[in-house]
Amino acid sequence: MATTYHRSWAEPYKMKMVELLRMTTRAQRLKAIRDAGFNTFLLPSKDVYIDLLTDSGTSAMSDRQWAGMMQGDESYAGSQNFYHLEKAVHAYYGYKYLVPTHQGRGAENLLSKILIKPGDIIPGNMYFTTTRLHQELAGGTFADIIIDEAHDPQNEHPFKGNVDLNKLEKLVKKHGPEKIPYVCIATNVNMAGGQPISLANLRELWNYTRQHGIRIIHDMTRVAENAYFIQQREPGYAKMSIQRIVKAICSYTDGATMSAKKDALVNIGGFLATNEWEVYEEARNLVVVYEGLHTYGGMAGRDMEAMAIGIEESLNDNHIHARVGQVEYLGHRMEEFDIPLVRPIGGHGVFVDARRFLPHIPQDKFPAQALAAEIYLDSGVRTMERGIVSAGRKPNGEQYFPKLELVRFTIPRRVYTQAHMDVVAESANAVLHRRNRIKGLNMVYEPKYLRFFQARFERL
Ligand code: F0G
Fold it and tell me: Is the pLDDT reported for residue 2 higher than 80?
């Protein structure tokens, strides 16, 4: 009988410097979360032990990236680092024209202002908070065209980021293609739980939009993680490198917005990229109004250099395997404790299903918000609500009631160890065991825009 040996993956890096963490007592955490109005965004980071609030801007840079920081060319115009970044975007993503921005939403602002007219419809594979707000501020209306499976946390579909072309076809028939400036396609869909779109689905969408003269704009914030799932799950791609898959994804889109603070392994930065000269010309002009000159767009030269290097590192097969592998490790640990999760486990974090975790708390009493506060109280682990608070209100003032009511345990890249993941899973388990005693929340302060960042709550 042939014997096969299990072989583990491990991080393709070692530590050269560490940042010390501060431990807190339960009494200190109780005071901190009360002072923060039960909103983990309002906690000072000094009161946090393991910070899984977000994977945005929280990556550890490599020694190569830090060396690149020392080569920052801080000239106002024509910084060398801009040309390095332009070269990287061209080489690895394939887009023709690049306009740097300070982060993703800076690019979303420019894009929305350029392409959206009042009354337009912008279909997308699930909303993202800042993306939809910029569409609405430009007079557009977001329309969700993701497959139904994406709204069901227990559905095991391997590509829950896929588009339902029938939903898009209905919109095109109803409003006409001239009312649809572009379809917004996110890779590794954040709000669905870090779920990928398949290349087959994207190719179909590409063919469909070509027939109707509609652009595809790619929210490529987490494109490398999406490429990893294609490599692992989509027939025919098992032997293709992440670099080639990423290039293929981008080739089925007309332009992109990027928050480089995620996959591209930097602490700040983003861009708008396009293959259309007219869009580029307009963006290059508008960027000087909102961000900075078109050769820095709100970033320091050193940050552009770190991004150029980070883009290359992010597409290394060993890197992305360890990155998503760590997320899966946490997910599997939690599943051993029967913690209800969004399935399949996502690319950038583990999403706990607060509806099933706290079935006694109705959605308008903010179960995911309450759960995030309880996790913090238990162990100092900071997570984030991705449910009704994040969904916010429609332009007419009504609340959205999203099907997904989730707490996101987001894993920063190259930052925490497997032992940290064990502590996190055990904390979630401890909270699960006393879930019956957890109460809902009342919102006592609600900001007008993107309320989840600054809203305040009180315990019922
Ligand atoms: N698109 C997606 C899919 C994102 O996840 C984000 C940010 C943005 C756009 C906006 O980019 O923050 O650089 O302005 N997501 C962060 C998160 C905030 O925690 O998921 P940004």
Answer: no
Quote the tokens at residue 7: 């072989």
* Token reading at 108: 């979303």
Phi/psi at 146 (5° precision) = -75, 155
Amino acid at 445: Y
Q: Which two tokens stand for residue 298?
A: 């709100």
pLDDT digit string (tens) for 410-459? 999 999 999 999 999 999 999 999 999 999 999 999 999 999 999 999 99
Does the predicted model carry a pTM greater than 0.90?
yes
Query: Cα(first)–Cα(last) distance of the chain, in Å?
Result: 62
Nearest atom in ligand 1 to 53's CA = 19
Residue for token pair 């999203």? 402
Q: Answer yes or no: 128 catalytic.
A: yes
How big is the CA angle at 333 (ends 327 and 339), to the nearest 5 degrees?
A: 100
- Residue 1: pLDDT band by 50, 70, 90 thresholds? low
Residue 56 alpha carbon to ligand 1 centre in Å: 7
Q: Which domains does the chain have, with CATH numbers?
A: 26-55+317-459 (3.90.1150.10), 64-314 (3.40.640.10)
